[in-house]
Specification:
This protein is of the alpha+beta class. Helices cover 14% and strands 27% of the residues. The chain has one helix and three strands, in the order ββαβ. It has one helix at residues 38-46; strands at 21-27, 32-34, 49-55. It has a three-stranded antiparallel β-sheet, with helices on one face. Strand 1 and strand 2 form a beta hairpin. It is globular and about 40 Å long.
Length: 63
Amino acid sequence: MGKPRSAAAVGKDFPYDVPTTCFIEVSNDGSVSQGVDVQAYERAVAGTSRLFAVSRPRFYGAS
């Protein structure tokens, strides 16, 4: 399994648009929520939270 990478490290724009991507927001106070809106992105840019993207790989031919 590969190591986690930032969007900037792999030259990708954020947020990702793959439908299997889940965004997790961790606020500076330690609370965790699903980062589902533009405000989550804006809080991450402002430094009041961290936003993580987790993507389930697509397995072609598997059901």
